[in-house]
Amino acid sequence: MVFLGDLLVESPSFVSVSVFADAFIGVNIGTDITDIPSPTDIVALLKAQSIQHVRLYDADRAMLLALAHTGIRVTVSVPSDQLLGIGQSNATAANWVAHNVLAHVPATNITAIAVGSEVLTTLPNVAPVLVSALEFIHSALVAANLDQQIKVSTPHSSSLILDSFPPSQAFFNRTWDPVMVPLLKFLQSTGSYLMLNVYPYYDYVQSNGAVPLDYALFRPLPPTREAVDANTLLHYTNVFDAVVDAAYFAMSYLNFTNIPILVTESGWPSKGDSSEPDATPDNANTYNSNLIRHVLNNTGTPKHPGVPISTYIYELYNEDLRTGPVSEQNWGLFYANGGPVYTLHLTGAGTVFANDTTNQTFCVAKNDADTKMLQAALDWACGPGKVDCSPLLQGQTCYEPDNVVQHATYAFNAYYQKTGKSLGTCDFKGVAIVTTTNPSKASPHIHNYLLVNFTDFINNFFVQNKSPKILKQFLAI
Ligand SMILES: *[C@@H]1O[C@H](CO)[C@@H](O)[C@H](O)[C@H]1NC(C)=O
Ligand SMILES: *[C@@H]1O[C@H](CO)[C@@H](O)[C@H](O)[C@H]1NC(C)=O
Ligand SMILES: *[C@@H]1O[C@H](CO)[C@@H](O)[C@H](O)[C@H]1NC(C)=O
Ligand SMILES: *[C@@H]1O[C@H](CO)[C@@H](O)[C@H](O)[C@H]1NC(C)=O
Ligand SMILES: *[C@@H]1O[C@H](CO)[C@@H](O)[C@H](O)[C@H]1NC(C)=O
Ligand SMILES: *[C@@H]1O[C@H](CO)[C@@H](O)[C@H](O)[C@H]1NC(C)=O
Ligand SMILES: *[C@@H]1O[C@H](CO)[C@@H](O)[C@H](O)[C@H]1NC(C)=O
């Protein structure tokens, strides 16, 4: 109750945008994929997973048509290469809006336009026209009477925020004040939000050990390791909150205290090269599962408890055509064929999730392990290891798919479970690894992928939690 009072004094509009709107989880859809699924297939996956909010990196016509009449909320993007033209010409902007937005609403529920992506940190030459681009796009929406339902903003990299810990001392790179000040004025006057990409993975990797992995993954920290902002005495239990609060403080440094934040990208890669040892399925699963719980709980941040921070996960699919380190291609929740990269464990939402996988671990063969070493380990498990490998024989239940990785996984996991998961029983000379994803569920021969369904989770969660909380906030007012 105290915090609502504080909010009322400090920033009245937070209350109006936050108390009644719950935070949502959305998903980014990148398309640098060899076998890109058709728009119809993509929408089928979204529906099957009950994903209600998506962000596109363009305004692809076929995709927007496929999203029509689905109820899915869509953020479209002005690709960075069209920004210069739009920022220099009101007519070009109006034309873009006519073709990419007006042609699709209301059938397709477009709720926001992301103008460019991380422009100030990646395309500084476009920076001088960035605010004009937002204003021109917005005036076209005003002319069509759509400015209330479609918000205009531009996603920023969190690297724009300097001295981000402690959050109370954070500020936007001063070089960009001439852009940030009019931009924030625009966001404030149009009731829009600051779009921010938040990547605790990079904060962790680039910190050279200063940021504990647990702190990046939202895992509980011993109180002695919690980060405390000495100026505000606020306790930070995870990097995500600290970055979001740094953005709030950076805005208030420029005297803007009532602009909400929308996290346009956040995620964790499930695979990396040898220099990226923390890009693993378990870490990706832990991060995204904890992030989803954190966001849907409307926990807010230490600076603004209870103020929802809606977040788009980066990203729906692994994008195999992306260049750079291996991790770049492995941020997805799904493979292009629609199979899950790992099973999110969204427990903690009450008793509905009877089959809590959070605590379950399995032992699987590493995909990239040497085939001869795998075969040797498989032979050992089925021989001296005393695993019953008869289901792997031709014609038996686990014969298909007939490859050494799948067979080794069967044997490794049987051995691991049989030995009570004791230490060292999932190694097999380095070709095995512990995971929280049940290999028998993820295996293609059982087509029933048991990825926890977003809607079930959200519904179950809110049935349990929403009403009392909202009621409490009503009573507080
Ligand atoms: C479109 O999305 C907005 C924001 O979530 C919602 O308020 C509105 O009801 C939706 N419109 C339709 C037609 O579904
Ligand atoms: C820009 O175009 C919109 C229509 O798209 C119009 O309402 C507005 O007046 C124009 N602004 C300028 C500065 O020409
Ligand atoms: C601030 O932005 C400018 C322009 O992009 C860049 O040259 C400078 O390195 C940035 N400062 C810091 C500390 O990152
Ligand atoms: C913020 O407001 C204070 C008090 O009105 C003023 O002194 C300060 O110059 C303002 N800062 C900016 C960046 O506008
Ligand atoms: C959910 O929010 C409440 C406060 O509203 C907080 O006490 C609790 O720790 C949060 N749970 C999670 C999982 O974030
Ligand atoms: C839990 O697992 C059992 C057996 O695998 C299954 O029959 C049941 O439907 C599952 N329950 C839920 C809530 O997923
Ligand atoms: C995980 O297992 C431990 C020990 O069996 C138990 O105390 C804990 O509550 C479990 N956690 C979850 C989330 O089920």
TrEMBL record:
EC number annotated for this UniProt entry: 3.2.1.39
Subcellular location(s) of the protein: Cell membrane
SMART domains per UniProt: X8
GO cellular component: plasma membrane; plasmodesma; side of membrane
Pfam family name, one: Glyco_hydro_17
An example Gene Ontology molecular-function term: glucan endo-1,3-beta-D-glucosidase activity
GO process terms (BP): carbohydrate metabolic process; defense response
UniProt record similarity statement: Belongs to the glycosyl hydrolase 17 family.
X8 domain residues: 361-446
Recorded topology in the membrane: Lipid-anchor; GPI-anchor
Reactions catalysed: Hydrolysis of (1->3)-beta-D-glucosidic linkages in (1->3)-beta-D-glucans
Record's protein name: glucan endo-1,3-beta-D-glucosidase
Primary site of residence: membrane
Keywords, comma-separated and alphabetical: Cell membrane, Disulfide bond, Glycoprotein, Glycosidase, GPI-anchor, Hydrolase, Lipoprotein, Membrane, Plant defense, Signal
InterPro entries per the UniProt record, alphabetical: GH (IPR017853), Glyco_hydro_17 (IPR000490), Glyco_hydro_17_plant (IPR044965), X8 (IPR012946)
Organism taxonomic ancestry: Eukaryota, Viridiplantae, Streptophyta, Embryophyta, Tracheophyta
